[in-house]
Structures are given as C-alpha cells and as structure tokens.
Amino acid sequence: MNKLAIIAAAVTASMTSYHVVAETVTPTAEPVAAVYNINHAKVAPVIDGIAHDNEWKSAQALTDFTFPWRDTPAPATEFKAVWHADSVYFQYTVTDANVAIGTDPERAILDSDRVEIFLAKDVQLSRYYTMEIDPKARVFSAEASYDMVNKKRASLDSNWTWKGLETKASLTDSGYVVEGKLPLQTLTDLSLWQNKQQTQLLCALMRAEFTQQADGKLDMGWMTWIDPKTPKPNFHNPQTFGHCQLVK
Is there a contact between 225 and 62 (Cβ–Cβ < 8 Å)? Predict the structure, then answer.
C-alpha cells in the first residue's frame, strides 16, 4: 500500500483585528446545537506544552468527550481555547495510562495517540481543514471536502498545511498535554468565519485514543465532543461539527 493510500485509510476515522462580542449563534443552513465559547484572554498564554492553570483561567473547560462507538467509559480529556489580539490559543489536557507514539516514518503521527481539531467553511463541508497533533507536537494536517449526496469524504490533500500554526506538547505523569496557537488571519484567509463579525466558527473536536497491544497491534479508540451517530468511527462528516465562538 503506498503512502497516500495508508494516510487516506487512517484519517477516515480520524481576524483580522476587528472583533465584536458574540451574544448568540445565528443558525446557518442547518442548526448546530453544541457551542463552545472561546473566551478573550487579557494576557496571551505561553505555548510551551505545559499546563499552567493561571494562563488559561479565563478559558471554558470542555470535558464532554466520549467513546461514541464503544460501551466503555472514556478517559478524561479537557479542551480549552482563548483568543488574544491576533491569535487563537488552544490546549488539550489528556489522561492516558498508555501513551502510544508511532515510529514508522510513513505514518508515525497516524499510529500515535493524538488530539484533533477540524474547521469547516460551511455546514455542507464543501471545504474543511484538519489538524491532528500527537504527544510529540507533530502535526498531520489536510484540506478536505465532503460529498453530501453520497455521504462520504470526497477528497483529502495531506500535503496541505496550516499557515502560522505553532504547537508544543509534553508527556505528564497521567498522560500528555498539547498546546497550539493559530493566527486569526489564517481563519480569515481560509474563509472559515460564519458571520460578518468574524466571531463564529464551525469546529469539530476529537481525540484518537490508542493502546499498544501485546501482539504489537494498536487498539484504536475514537473520542468526540459531539456524537455524530454514525454506525462506524468516522470524524469526517457534518454531524461531528459544532460551533466555536469568540466572546469577550
């Protein structure tokens, strides 16, 4: 199997300075129930991969991550995001007793435990962008599209990368921490804002929870903020997305 085929198989599961306060979410083509508030931070967090509580005290802590495709309790996952000046800052704090870190040069990130953020241009996912970050701060990113008629991913370009993205990560006694910073201008350039005030985004938040087995194989668990109600693990569909909105 060539490199592109391997990557495609693995990922199937897997502002300018003008901003105003977002009070409500205005529905687009379809209502999106789940909302995560990206609060304003008076001081920008330091992106170092280390969880400093003070730096993130203004952030909303999101912990509603589950195993939609398993009848087992999901290990704790906490997502936080804030915005300051010209960037969005985010942090995942992950509880993981057996951190898997891939070493295969062709698919190291895709064999690793990782956290994921997808951002979409519209609710039909005519264009959306993926960000998957492992415990070594390595990033797998892609530009993709979805086929609403056939209900499946239509394209995925894994050569695409996020302009201006910075990431750091570290292992902890209980798992790992991933932090990142993304310029608001990048969101503008990709036409990802869902309103004229440039405060609303379509976002999907996920986690790949892998465990190395005695036989060398990986047990692959897939966790989401929003249950997409698909029969098999699949992050690449409109039902995985909610709203992330900048507030002050």
Answer: yes
